[in-house]
Design goal:
The complex is a heterodimer of chains A (about 300) and B (about 325). Chain A is an all-alpha fold. Chain A is built from twelve helices and no strands. The N and C termini of chain A lie close together (about 10 Å). Chain B is mainly alpha-helical and about 325 residues long. Classes of the chains: A mainly alpha (about 300), B mainly alpha (about 325).
Chain lengths: ~300, ~325
């Protein structure tokens, strides 16, 4: 808590501002953020859970107890706690724990990549619209308004449905869904920054468009759109798995949480709780991303 | 006010046209010759050629779009490949079911969200605020198709209390106001209400907190107003924002119910859409998306106008 005071310069420091002190102040900001995060146990816990899920997916070959594709006719739909299958088996007798660990690979990839793509495309479009203003702004933002006129789930399903099933198609359709909101946020932040006095001062002292964009605009815009994008990852993971759940994402026998939920749906009368497991993992991942994003936003809020 | 409505409607027209262009291009997004997207795969070549001319697929794209748009405006959305019935007719009966489900889910989600969010915003930091915030973040993080499945497992499989599928006994597709039909409504309604509940709680909590931080609230209290009267002022100030969020959420409910309808085999537009995807029935896909998106545009327009009508501050902006 005491760290918060450091954001404001002490009276003695404020009298003569030179580059060294500015640098010290900006370090002060990041140490403040770190200090705030250090006491926010919910955010830390969520970060740890996410690290665990991501590393389990990356090192699946090393830690998974079985082969994710190995079927067994005699061991189908065994309950949670069955011998050698701690989380039971699915409708084809494959080990659930193994499939959940491997499933993270595609589910996380399909959930995170669209947001990263949209961050790049939307960020660039938004900065162009915000920095150039005028007709360019009108043209870009009106096109975005059209995409905004679709509820996000509907747009994702429409594009995926037309393109057909497949991981690439699902990623493309989700990218299209997330470009408009990121463009809007970037545009509004860029417009604010562009009109600030010090940008005007930089221009008056001879800084070119490129320099202003790189030094002033980019450094101010990146933080807000980065935080905003992390809040989209949770939605993206739910939507990506939802597309697979509808049969629009991955195809069998690939392990993917949404698809596993779909194929196990037929078995809820035989072994209900095993069927619910993939969804529980989607829920945990999405909840952690949401809480992490909230925690980051609070920690990085300069107004506090 | 009248001028504002005219301007707002004029602004909605290019948006609606843009939406129609995107929906139109869905046929051309689907891989292969677009004619394959609108006829059965085993159709003879001469039929394909004749239909190609009938649909105008041999003409340049802008001409095709113009023809398609004119037909769509007159209510002709083409013919389903799978069933051979007119798409418009199929959508009309399905849309009624979706709207009903979305309406009840919305009522449930909005009322819980409004009460929770209001109390939480008014008593920030209290235990009830923590409960509301937790419920809200759970509501926005839960994959609703999974929640539906869990509710089915608990209430249909384990407890055998409520039906798991369909809209009425024996797969009935006609709604009736009796207990048997209403029992079918409970689980999909609860499942679908969770996301709007979360979002409305979050928004109302933030709005009420923001209104409370204004100096006029302090002035009202200093003036000696009863807390009840102060509350009245808070509701009046927070109202327009809440109304806007609820309006938009209703639109998202209509568009987003596809996954929930799939889980519960609810015979609405989402179920129709899922069927269309499964059979690669592009005319139905196109028709459902067009109708839902147009409804969303219209809803946005109405929300904006209603918000301006009740909030004089908006008219200046």
């Amino acid at each position: 808590m005491s760290n918060r005071v450091e954001v404001r310069p002490a009276p003695a420091m404020a009298t003569g501002v030179d580059t060294a002190q500015v640098a010290a102040l900006s370090r002060g900001y990041w140490s403040t953020v770190a200090g705030r995060l250090g006491t926010d146990y919910v955010t830390i816990a969520c970060g740890l859970v996410l690290i665990a899920i991501v590393s389990a997916a990356i090192f699946a070959d090393l830690i998974a107890p079985a082969d994710p594709y190995k079927t067994s006719i005699v061991r189908r739909l065994k309950p949670i706690g069955f011998a050698n299958h701690p989380l039971g088996t699915d409708e084809l007798g494959r080990d659930m724990l193994t499939r959940l660990i491997y499933g993270g690979r595609l589910s996380l990839f399909m959930g995170v990549l669209p947001v990263v793509n949209a961050l790049i495309v939307g960020g660039i479009l938004g900065m162009i619209a915000g920095f150039l203003g005028g007709r360019v702004n009108m043209a870009i933002m009106r096109v975005m308004d059209v995409f905004y006129a679709f509820p996000s789930v509907l747009l994702a399903i429409a594009i995926s449905g037309a393109l057909g099933a497949g991981v690439t198609n699902a990623i493309v359709s989700l990218t299209v869904v997330f470009i408009p909101p990121i463009t809007r946020v970037t545009e509004s932040v860029t417009t604010q920054v562009r009109n600030l006095d010090y940008v005007e001062a930089a221009r008056a002292s001879g800084a070119g468009t490129q320099t202003i964009l790189r030094v002033h605009v980019l450094s101010n815009v990146l933080g807000p759109i980065f935080i905003y994008s992390t809040s989209l990852i949770s939605v993206s993971i739910i939507l990506a798995s939802g597309l697979s759940f509808l049969g629009l994402g991955t195809e069998p026998p690939e392990p993917e949480w949404g698809l596993m939920l779909n194929t196990l749906r037929q078995s809820i009368y035989i072994n209900p709780w095993v069927a619910a497991l993939p969804g529980a993992v989607i829920f945990a991942t999405s909840l952690c991303f949401n809480l992490l994003s909230d925690g980051l936003r609070t920690a990085m809020d300069v107004r506090l | 006010m009248f001028g504002y409505i005219l301007r707002r409607v004029a602004y909605a027209i290019p948006i609606a046209l843009g939406v129609s262009i995107i929906v139109f291009s869905l046929v051309h997004l689907s891989p292969g010759d677009p004619i394959n997207a609108v006829i059965a795969a085993d159709a003879p070549a001469e039929v394909a050629q004749r239909l190609k001319e009938a649909y105008g697929f041999d003409k340049p794209l802008p001409v095709q779009y113009g023809k398609w748009l004119l037909r769509a405006i007159t209510g002709d959305l083409g013919v389903s490949i799978a069933t051979g019935r007119a798409v418009a007719g199929e959508i009309t009966s399905a849309a009624a079911n979706t709207i009903m489900l979305a309406f009840f889910a919305g009522m449930l989600g909005f009322s819980i969200g409004a009460v929770l969010g209001g109390i939480a915003g008014y008593n920030q930091g209290s235990w009830i605020d923590k409960v509301a915030t937790t419920m809200a973040i759970t509501g926005v993080s839960v994959p609703h198709y999974w929640l539906g499945l869990v509710l089915v497992i608990v209430f249909a499989v384990e407890l055998n209390m409520l039906p798991a599928m369909g809209m009425g006994p024996g797969g009935s597709r006609d709604w009736a106001w009796d207990v048997a039909h209403m029992r079918h409504l409970v689980l999909p309604m609860v499942t679908l209400s969770v996301i709007p509940m979360g979002i409305v709680t979050r928004t109302i909590r933030a709005t009420v907190a923001e209104v409370l931080s204004n100096e006029f609230v302090q002035a009202l209290r200093a003036k000696g107003l009863l807390e009840r009267q102060v509350l009245g002022h808070i509701v009046k100030n927070a109202g327009p924002t809440c109304l806007a969020v609820m309006g938009l959420q209703f639109g998202y409910l209509l568009g987003g119910s596809i996954l929930v309808e799939t889980v519960f085999s609810w015979p609405g537009t989402g179920f129709l859409l899922n069927d269309a995807i499964f059979r690669r029935d592009i005319p139905v896909l196109q028709g459902v998306i067009l109708i839902l998106a147009m409804f969303f545009v219209l809803l946005n327009l109405m929300v904006d106008i209603a918000q301006t009508a009740i909030d004089p501050r908006m008219r200046r902006a």
